[in-house]
Amino acid sequence: xxxxxxxLKGKTLLYVEDDIKLQQNIVExxxxxxxxxxxxxxxxxxxxxxxxxxNKIDIVIxxxxxxxxxxxxxxxxxxxxxxxxxIVIISAYTDTDYLLDSIDLNxxxxxxxxxxxxxxxxxxDKFLDYxxxxxxxxxxxSIEFDYDSGTVIVDEEIVQLTQKExxxxxxxxxxxxxxxxxxxxxxxxxxxxxxxDAIKSFIKKFKKKLPAxxxxxxxxxxxxxxx
Length: 227
Known about the structure:
The protein is built from 8 helices and 12 strands. The protein is an alpha/beta fold and 227 residues long. The model has no long low-confidence stretch (mean pLDDT 86).
């Protein structure tokens, strides 16, 4: 694999395809680019996977024509929760209605089957472009956040973040409020829920790295950026 695709390794992909043999083949190909791939065989299962992992999933690739809930309806369900999550639709058909629906759903691209090596590499390049644009976030005039390097730039001074701090700041930058449940799932993976003292200690250390009052606590709920 070309070194330029290493950026994608840490991303979590949800792949939805009802043809099991094709699904297995494509997962084998995609595993060269992604360490974590969640798989579903129809729209209903895909929706369950999404709800269970919505704070972890970075990319969705879905077929359109599937039993039960189809790909378009599944994507509409996602958009009720997340307007920006990159979604790719794959189909054996180039139906105009589907194309129009996918445009309305802010789909980043529409790929026709067969899923050739050339199409896979082209798609990976689109993901690189997307995340290179989205990984660098302007918080406000004097503060910038780069998720991939785990840094915050404050008045041109680079502040290096730990892995947990990077995940937490990403949540802050993408959500109006980061609940405690979101922190448990995204930062600790529910393996062992941290104590209140552990969370307070984490927040206290993190706040020392950043400008005063950059983020605030909403009692009993979680944290939010105060900008």
